[in-house]
Specification:
Layout lengths: L2 E6 L2 E5 L25 H9 L21 E2 L2 E4 L3 E2 L1 H12 L3 H4 L14 H4 L2 H10 L13 H4 L2 H16 L15 E2 L2 E2 L2 H12 L13 E3 L2 E2 L3 E2 L5 H13 L6 E2 L6 H4 L14 E6 L6 E2 L4 E10 L10 H5 L3 H4 L4 E4 L3 H8 L6 E4 L12 H7 L6 E5 H10 L5 E5 L9 E8 L4 H13 L1 H10 L14
Parallel strand pairs: 8-11, 8-12, 15-16, 15-17
Antiparallel strand pairs: 1-2, 3-4, 4-5, 6-7, 9-10, 12-19, 13-19, 14-17, 14-18, 14-19
Helix pairs in contact: 2-7
Length: 466
């Protein structure tokens, strides 16, 4: 039996050993568009056709849904699937203070520590003191002068526990309509997630066939070779290809791809409004903030150097380390900080030769290719190690010197190559199926576009694909 967990005000996920269903419920009995399932609609249709059942709703057998208004520690569950207004105010304070920028959207930790475990033991006094006074030695700022935070300090703590509670407490997907009875199949109550889906289908509240007025990718406005607002990136080109196949116009939503990109694009929705966009064109396969498709290319980090400057004999990563110590120790190698390249140079004792560049910058005029197009091309650095699509594209753009691109192979302790997929919202099974069909049917055209942008393509062994 999959368990149903509270996630956010509009999202409920079902997860189990087989990950049988994942639905986006914005209230099956509200008047919003509601469901999709990880299993195909045809599977659900077969299931429903086999059921000698009448209209009703389901109750979980392993754990009954909490009663309306039931207490869950510091927070309160209302109507079976909502939280009380105080907890919601805590959520608003969390968003206003941008706590997720350091602690992560799921409190899993980013530059700041994970709150998932610490909040289980942190006393209220320590919680208040930490938020109020900060921990400057660890980079935690003080919020004593923030009225929205301090006025909601109790609500903020409630929000933390409610957020964590959705991971550990099974909860009802929605409260049943008054007078409804459990759906039964061969005399047994159906699993809650299946029954809710069945009810939605039979009562006409489920989503109709996926129809869209435009192909709406979430893009960065200035992030070549991937995308920009002028439509010059390979993501733009692939989006145009897909839109043409679907007979739709392209309608981009542009937002800088910094922190919280998915939250502010693919998953952003205000009451009464539609989502801002429907697909992210490039994400690491398996990225957990979206529902990723089958991968459509694999690339790797690459070493880039100017021809005729003393590195022409370097054809692999191992060749770099085989250079005479006198030559090797004089190198200046540009890398993006916190990338596999930095770990690789440290592993091989070349950290002194590394020149780190920030992987994220608040400067809107800075772009990832500057490390190659400016500093490497002008001789400020001797070589650079960057993500393959960036390496290939900007090496091709430089005209004053010929740049050589050497794809790097992963090795124990350092992973260079990654599969790249597209991402849609969790639960939008029909849309995901449409995108995967487009990927499969247009693979030669997609590869041709990637080749045009000089993206290094490798197989699962990290070997270059010709």
């Amino acid at each position: 039996m999959p368990a149903i967990f509270f996630v956010e005000p509009s999202i409920v996920e079902t997860r189990g050993a087989n990950a049988t269903l994942s639905v986006m419920l914005e209230g099956c009995w509200s008047h919003r568009k509601t469901m999709s399932a990880h299993t195909g609609w045809w599977q659900v249709g077969l299931l429903l056709c086999a059921m000698p059942i009448g209209l009703g709703t389901a109750t979980a057998q392993d754990k009954p849904p909490p009663a309306a208004g039931s207490e869950h520690g510091l927070y309160r569950v209302v109507d079976g699937y909502k939280v009380d207004s105080n907890t919601m105010n805590g959520f608003r304070a969390w968003r206003a203070a941008a706590c997720d920028r350091c602690h992560g959207a799921n409190q899993e930790g980013l530059v700041g520590p994970s709150l998932v475990e610490s909040l289980k033991t942190l006393s209220k006094e320590d919680f208040v003191k930490t938020v109020r006074d900060g921990r400057l030695e660890k980079g935690m700022v003080a919020f004593a002068n923030s009225k929205s935070v301090m006025d909601n300090i109790d609500n903020l703590q409630r929000r933390y526990h409610a957020r964590e509670g959705r991971r550990v407490e099974a909860m009802s997907a929605a409260s049943p309509p008054e007078g409804a009875r459990p759906l039964r199949w061969r005399g047994e109550a159906l699993p809650t997630a299946v029954a809710v889906l069945a009810l939605a289908l039979m009562s006409g509240t489920a989503c109709a066939q996926d129809t869209r007025a435009a192909f709406r990718p979430c893009i960065d406005p200035d992030n070549l070779p991937f995308a920009n607002s002028k439509g010059e990136g390979f993501e733009n080109r692939i989006a145009e290809l897909f839109a043409q196949k679907l007979g739709l116009p392209v309608k981009n939503f542009a937002f800088p791809q910094r922190m919280n990109f998915i939250r502010n694009t693919l998953r952003y929705k205000l009451p009464g409004q539609d989502f801002r966009c429907d697909i992210v064109m490039s994400l690491p396969a398996g990225y957990d903030q979206a529902w990723t498709t089958t991968p459509y290319y694999r690339s790797t980090y690459a070493l880039v150097y100017p021809k005729g400057k003393g590195l022409d004999g370097v054809k692999t990563g191992a060749d770099l380390f085989a250079l005479p110590a006198e030559r090797r120790n004089k190198l200046t190698i540009g890398i993006h900080d916190k990338s596999p390249a930095s770990a690789w140079l440290v592993k091989h004792g070349l950290e002194a030769q590394a020149r780190p560049y920030p992987i994220l910058s608040p400067d809107p005029d800075q772009y990832p290719g500057q490390i190659i197009e400016k500093d490497l091309a002008l001789g400020t650095i001797d070589a650079a190690i960057v993500w393959g699509p960036i390496a290939g594209y900007y090496a091709k753009r430089v005209r004053n010197v010929e740049l050589i691109v050497i794809p790097l192979k992963s090795e124990p302790g350092v992973k260079f190559d990654y599969e790249i997929a597209m991402g849609v919202r969790q639960g939008e099974a029909e849309w995901k199926g449409t995108v995967e069909k487009l990927l499969a049917e247009n693979r030669p055209a997609i590869v041709a576009i990637l080749r045009e942008y000089n993206v290094p393509l490798v197989n699962e062994r990290g070997e270059a694909i010709d």
